[in-house]
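Dear colleague,

As promised, here are the two records you asked about, laid out in our usual form so they can be pasted straight into your sheet.

NAME FIELD: protein one
SEQUENCE, THEN STRUCTURE:
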Amino acid sequence: MSSTHALTPPSLPPAVSTSSLPARGLRRAAAFGCAFAAAGAFWASLARPWWSFVLYAPQYPRGLRLSISLTGLSGDVHEVGMLNHYIGMKHLEDAAVFERAYAAPGVALVALLAFAVLFWRGRRPAWWTAGVGLLLPLGFLADSFYWLFRFGHELDPHAPVRVPAFTPQLFGNGRIGQFMTFAQPADGFWIALVGAVLFGVASVLRQYERRAGHAH
């Protein structure tokens, strides 16, 4: 007595879905495109002023203007330097000498670091990498505040005019003796901030692309 058995096809491993591959490729291309744009913005900011200061007084009704870039100073540098001498402040050219000398390599280093973290590999997405691009603008702010504080608190005690120690205003309106001051970011800072945002977008896209790769 013979029995028949229905033939069943052998079980096959589930097919790897390729539907997400084009999306992953697009995310990767967009991530590196944003990263290149961010590096370009960082580099372009070198040629532009990052911060501007205006000093007003009765004898200067139009104001004295200073523009601060990563590589130097421009504007009414000589006139402001003479006024600073009367209250015992150091020459403006003495501030951030190291930073100005190595500004270009520093910007290049931040751009390279930004690209390097795009290749970060770990078990979990490293969302902290999205903030690496902020190192440049935040570092500039911290360094600028340091030098403003130092110059305002290391006054020559033998200066012709004695004023209490102070910290010049980094944002908005301030006062130094009889001078009213106004400080604000210039276009170089905003360009660098756009670069930081672009790199943040690049990092987020890269992390999503990696997470999608781990899911399959």
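NAME FIELD: protein two
SEQUENCE, THEN STRUCTURE:
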Amino acid sequence: MEKKFKALRTISVIFKILAWIVAVLTIIGFLVMLVGGAALSQISGRYGAAGMLGPLGGIAMAFYILFLGAIWFISLLAGAEMILVILAIEENTRALKPQG
């Protein structure tokens, strides 16, 4: 049986790739903000309001990045899987249709 909707399958793969890119960048951003945010808060007292929140502000921002990245990752992965589920329903429905 021929596979239909090749563009949707391609979009699903693209969504999965984007989801994993977001996951990796989120983890990198989390670690950079965790270390950099605490360091920034120590030196920013000399330069103005950037360190108003202190080291806890850097840690809070790191977890905020982690939270938003997780939401994006789950959303993109769910979108990719939803496309595949709809395609599977279509294939199964077409397979059950009587020939003739």
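A couple of things worth noting about protein two: The mean pLDDT is 86. Residues 30 and 62 are 5 Å apart (CA to CA).

Best,
R.
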